[in-house]
Specification:
Length: about 375
């Protein structure tokens, strides 16, 4: 069981720690890495600015099979077999070949943490001095480990290539509100009245609905569109949460450090689905690290193997980015969106597209040991 401690004020005593593996970031990617190291006997430490599960970072919808395969069903709030897309002219219902579920972030993180065997502390990561044993600098002192993972999200704090910041970086932006409410459908809005290059969503989760807007164009603000969509849906604008969302793959290894999840741009373009990919690449990184701590690989071999595994998905990401770039121009011709959404509503096409989309980061990966086959591009 992990030891947890949210340290505030005078309790933020200095840290000075040596461990085998240091995982920076305790959200989807970081907890997936730590989970794979359980039972190795390695000393593993996870750190985050906030306590585990304290800050929700998304609308928390993921393929149900992923949740089931990771034994996280307990956090599920609602399951959906259909996706409803609202376009300027009509509302189209797609019957998916697999289901999506919304879940409770705090409960899910607690379940994931229970699957690991690590110490946890709160600290803000500020930088790294690289070496055979890296030194990670935090606001509470230095932590040393030969194996370091950056699962810190889009800022990629431990990368040297931090020069590009929003709005110039390849990032989307998303904002949502979390009022109480109920609903039966997982809904999207692809409509220029909501946002030009992006989409709106309404994800029910038990007694709560998550209503938000994402823009692939980082210069387009999403506050007003989010408020407007919430008003249209007649829900209060309470419980705001938002973030930048990467839509370009970045190197998953850099100068001796492993990157997983948003820090490596693993969030999928077009859909901004980044939870299952954070799990997928986090598990892959964790399995490589496992081999190192068990003496079956060197750090350099693990870095090379994980870097190649991540890079093998570049084609799928490029395809999704191409689709993403079509959304704004299609929305400029509103009737084209409606016509396209209607035209693709053929079950064989839906099954094929969503089947290949799931295969980019397939749920079986949660069960398998070792890196799976390289992903396919969506149709
Ligand atoms: C509004 C919105 C809705 C979304 N909805 C969905 C959705 O429904 N489904 C889906 O699949 N994806 C969704 N996404 C995308 C998804 O949230 C991300 O892709 C996913 O959270 C990435 O996981 P991660 O573990 O890599 O990073 P994060 O979840 O961002 O976690 C990074 C962790 O690092 C910590 N951290 C950051 N900097 C520091 C620091 N300097 N020191 C210490 N700790 C630090 C943070 O506190 C955090 O715990 C959404 C995104 C947004 C913005």
């Amino acid at each position: 069981m992990p030891v947890r401690s949210t340290k505030r004020g005078a309790d933020r005593t200095p840290l000075d720690v040596d461990v085998d593996v240091l995982v920076c970031g305790a959200s989807f990617a970081g907890l997936a890495v730590a989970r794979e190291l359980a039972g190795t006997g390695a000393s593993v430490m996870v750190i985050d600015r906030y306590d585990i599960g304290e800050r929700q970072t998304s609308a928390c919808a993921a393929p149900t099979e992923w949740l089931r395969n990771l034994s996280l069903d307990g956090a599920v709030r609602q399951t959906f077999g259909d996706l409803v897309v609202n376009t300027p002219q009509e509302r189209v219902r797609y019957h998916l070949p697999w289901t999506f579920s919304t879940f409770d972030y705090r409960e899910l993180c607690a379940l994931m943490a229970e699957q690991g065997d690590f110490t946890f502390d709160t600290a803000k990561v500020e930088g790294i001095t690289r070496g055979p044993v890296h030194t990670v600098h935090t606001d509470r002192g230095d932590l040393r480990a030969p194996l370091v993972v950056d699962a810190l999200g889009w800022r990629r704090v431990l990368g040297r290539d931090m020069g590009i910041q929003p709005p110039d970086a390849r990032l989307s932006r998303g904002l949502e509100v979390h009022p109480e409410g109920r609903g039966d459908d997982l809904e999207l809005w692809i409509d220029p009245k909501v946002i030009r290059a992006g989409y709106g969503w309404r994800f029910p989760a038990g007694g709560e609905v998550r209503v938000g807007v994402g823009s692939f164009e980082p210069r387009d603000h999403v506050k007003e569109p989010t408020v407007a969509l919430a008003r249209e849906l007649d829900v209060p604008t309470v419980g705001y949460q938002g973030n930048w969302i990467p839509h370009q793959l970045r190197p998953a290894v850099s100068e001796g450090v492993f990157f997983a999840g948003d820090s490596a741009g693993h969030c999928l373009p077009l859909t901004a689905e980044g939870i299952r990919t954070a799990w997928y690449f986090g598990l892959a990184a964790g399995r490589e690290l496992r081999q190192v701590v068990e003496g079956r690989r060197t750090r350099e071999q693990a870095l090379a193997s994980y870097g190649a595994f991540s890079h093998a998905h570049a084609r799928s990401y490029a395809w999704l980015l191409r689709f993403q770039r079509m959304v704004g121009p299609m929305n400029d011709r509103g009737s084209l969106v409606s016509a396209t959404m209607r035209a693709v509503n053929r079950q064989w096409w839906i099954d094929r597209f969503f089947g290949r989309y799931l295969a980019v980061a397939p749920p079986e990966h949660a069960l398998a040991a070792g890196p799976p086959r390289a992903a396919q591009a969506p149709a």
